[in-house]
Design a protein that fits this description.
CATH superfamily: NAD(P)-binding Rossmann-like Domain
Distance between the termini: 33 Å
Shape: globular
Bound molecules: nicotinamide-adenine-dinucleotide, magnesium ion
CATH architecture: 3-Layer(aba) Sandwich
Structural class: alpha/beta
Radius of gyration: 18 Å
Number of domains: 1
Length: about 300
């Protein structure tokens, strides 16, 4: 079955309860039960990103892996960024994309570090011979019930990874982006409907929507488009890495479909936002949340 076959979205994927499971940050897709679907066996491309060169952060797992698989199958050559602890997940993605004849270069490293962000973009431009798409999917999430317990160290990890890196990676990339290129950020339904125990994360996700809308205006005269994807609950390592086993086992039960989304259900949105088919789309956020209202 491909992403283009007609199907019932309700019964398409597993529903909670899931097996109770916990991981430590950042978590691995390979350790999840059931395994997330990133489109490995389903996404069929049609040349929508032929000749594109993209840098994808958080590309080892979850939504970033789905974006990478979709972009690659549409013809893009990619640099994949992730944390060193996620090497095994990242190698699975690289091996898949290379076996299909595309370029997929692994560049692990911590994007909460300013210097690394500039280094990453420089090496990506070298490896790909230029850059047409900066796709920022990586994020840090921790859960805390009480603001009084929140440590500056974790606030910094959240804000540097989720917000500062957008500035640093964009600053590094923009001089290389020609008209027709794109920046895509990844927000969250949390930016509009914050959970009380995800205070710093939700604030960071709200900021990403604002960043997207403002930078899109700034870069419009350069012909560079800036858009965002805002997911609802999606079955990725982010959850077992930050929540307790009980919460993970019920993950997605509150969503109108009664299930979380799978990463594979988001890949096409990234492709659309990068592809020249969306030439008049900039400053926009596509919410993908299975009928959960965005506002
Ligand atoms: P994921 O854990 O698979 O992906 C997040 C990735 O972020 C990790 O794989 C890791 O490589 C990367 N990362 C984290 N800290 C980093 C750092 N300091 N340096 C470099 N890379 C770092 O989880 P996911 O759910 O696919 O998350 C992808 C995006 O989707 C995130 O922006 C997340 O906020 C967003 N999102 C997820 C959900 C959900 O329910 N899963 C909901 C809304 C938004
Ligand atoms: Mg990961």
């Amino acid at each position: 079955m491909s992403q283009l076959d007609k199907k019932d979205p309700i019964s398409l994927y597993p529903k909670p309860p899931f097996p109770k499971q916990e991981q430590s940050i950042p978590g691995l897709a390979s350790a999840m039960q059931p395994k997330p679907d990133h489109g490995e066996t389903s996404y069929v491309g049609s040349g929508r990103l032929k000749g594109f060169r993209g840098l994808v952060t958080g590309a080892d797992s979850g939504i970033g892996r789905a974006a990478a698989i979709s972009m690659s199958r549409e013809g893009a050559d990619l640099v994949l960024n992730y944390l060193p602890d996620e090497q095994s997940d990242a190698e699975e993605v690289r091996d898949l994309l290379e076996s299909e004849g595309r370029k997929a270069v692994l560049m692990p490293g911590d994007i909460s570090d300013e210097q690394f962000c500039f280094h990453l973009v420089g090496r990506a431009v070298e490896a790909l011979g230029g850059l047409d798409a900066l796709v920022m999917v990586a994020a840090h999430q921790e859960v805390s019930e009480d603001i009084l317990d929140m440590k500056t160290e974790s606030l910094e990890a959240t804000f540097k990874t989720n917000i500062y890196s957008l500035f640093w990676l964009s600053q590094a990339a923009i001089p290389h982006l020609e008209p027709g290129s794109s920046i895509v950020t990844t927000g969250s339904i949390q930016g509009a409907q914050p959970s009380p125990n995800k205070l710093d994360y939700a604030v960071s996700k709200g900021a990403i929507g604002v960043f997207t809308a403002a930078l899109a205006q700034q870069l419009a005269p350069k012909g560079i488009r800036v858009n965002s994807v805002a997911p609802g609950p999606v079955w990725t390592p982010l959850q077992p890495a930050s929540s307790d086993g009980e919460t993970v086992s019920q993950f997605g039960s509150q969503a109108p479909y009664g299930r979380p989304g799978q990463p594979a259900e988001l890949g096409a949105a990234y492709v659309h936002l990068i592809s020249p088919e969306s030439s008049y789309t900039s400053g926009t956020t596509i919410t993908i949340a299975g009928a959960t209202p965005a506002y």
